[in-house]
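Holo prediction. Input below; ligand is zinc ion.
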Amino acid sequence: MTRYSAFSVFREGLRGQTGWSKAWRTPTPRAAYDVVIIGGGGHGLATAYYLARTHGVTNVAVIEKGGLGGGNTGRNTTVIRSNYFYPESAALYDLSVKLYETLSRELNYNVMFSQRGMLATCHSEPEMEMAARQVNAMRLNGVDAELLTRDQVRKRAPLLNFGPDMRFPIHGGVSQPRAGTGRHDAVAWGYARAADARGVDIIQNCEVLDLLTEGGRCIGVRTSKGDIRAGVVGAAVAGHSSVIADMAGVDLPITSYALQAFVSEPLKPVLDTVVLCPPFGTYLSQSDKGGLVIGGGLDRVPSYGQRGNLPVQETVLAGLVEMMPALASVKLLRHWAGIVDVTPDSSPILGPSGLDGLYLNCGWGTGGFKAIPAGGYLFAHLLATGAHHEISRPFDRARFETGHLIDEGAASGIAH
Amino acid sequence: MQIFPCPFCGPRNETEFHFAGELGKARPTTTEAVSAKEWASYLYAQRNEKGAVHEVWMHLPCSELFVMERDSVTMDVLGARSLREGAE
Ligand SMILES: Cc1cc2nc3c(=O)[nH]c(=O)nc-3n(C[C@H](O)[C@H](O)[C@H](O)COP(=O)(O)OP(=O)(O)OC[C@H]3O[C@@H](n4cnc5c(N)ncnc54)[C@H](O)[C@@H]3O)c2cc1C
Ligand SMILES: [Zn+2]
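Structure of the complex:
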């Protein structure tokens, strides 16, 4: 593997780019591994990396039915933040933000984590009171947060609508300065390259068709490239979690929905932070290429159809035009959807599946890109030791039986 | 926009419809002891099938609940009937 550095870029420039090696190998699957991970999205690849780096477990395969990051990891709007309400969530998502802060150096791969801050606007005095509660909760949990006045919001994002005819006038906002955006593909590719360098086999275009079981225990996977045995199997397949659960004969509290996003033609810099307006459900940031990356709420129809549709497009763009009327004449370049795995409490599921030998990393729903480093770190701990890390324990599926839900959907009220 | 069929009003715009839940979930009888596992399954578990699904929907303008059969991958509507039809 060639190390990436300013020097290697310079040297290869002189050598006609002939000295680069492949970022990862294309191995044929072996008959057995210590750990098999289903799903080559960010969570699966990060899990493989931390298994090798933190636990010294390198006899690992990641099985991906398509290409790396072709699922939600390569389809999301890349907002990274930890502005949650409950201590359990703060511990999880802030671990992730901290890992992101040093990730480019650690992986020797530029994931372009840009801590440009995130701003959520408030549109009434009662909303301001709830915002103060949110900011206080975040600070108590050790996460950075600021309550902004209307003037401070205006200074931070002058493009927002402060006109007298705005339907829901802006009263102020909440900001998390350490939040920001990253480069989604780079997160998948960076983890893949670093895991491969430590001996992990990354097997693409290989679909898991069924689970192999023996005596009530999962002992491997049946794939389109043959059977592969495993000491332990971990599934990180996002919107397809219920399909794997069905193979395992366990049920899951998950509904799959399409979540859509949009990118505009490139513009000169107009916005240097992430902005969310909750009453419209629309949020956006501007990428380094100049495109506006725009997202909104979930579809209303459960779905495995990985494509956009008009009703949501209309809602999101109507919100955008109300938020920032100056953008009304901007043209869209692309519009797409990913299938996200939504739980009743908008919190993820990490832990044993209910079938011995099979573990789950799922339920991230609309917000698991930000959680990739922590999800991988904690899932690797589970697969290597068979036990929860203290940060992942509250997210065990057992919470649906004990009633200890971590209802972020209601508490922080932010879907993404 | 996709057109969904209401068994009472006919073909209408999808935005007039509300997804209520999967068909066939029965509340546990509370005259007997119900375990935490059974409650969790009733409250939270979803079949979430990829392919043909049977779901309960409401057509908001007429407020009627009905059963819609769809394909969750292609999003094709395969049929719609009132809740009474086919109920034992
Ligand atoms: C439009 C959109 C916007 C979003 N915006 C944000 C955001 O701003 N911030 C944020 O934090 N999160 C966001 N998310 C959510 C985030 O993208 C996901 O939670 C996260 O990427 C999940 O990562 P993953 O690795 O679990 O899943 P994925 O990246 O989906 O990877 C799962 C992989 O499993 C593979 N797979 C499935 N079944 C099988 C099988 N049987 N055999 C082999 N492989 C299989 C799939 O091909 C896929 O590559 C957004 C999502 C979408 C769709
Ligand atoms: Zn009707």
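The mean pLDDT of chain A is 96. That is the main takeaway for now.
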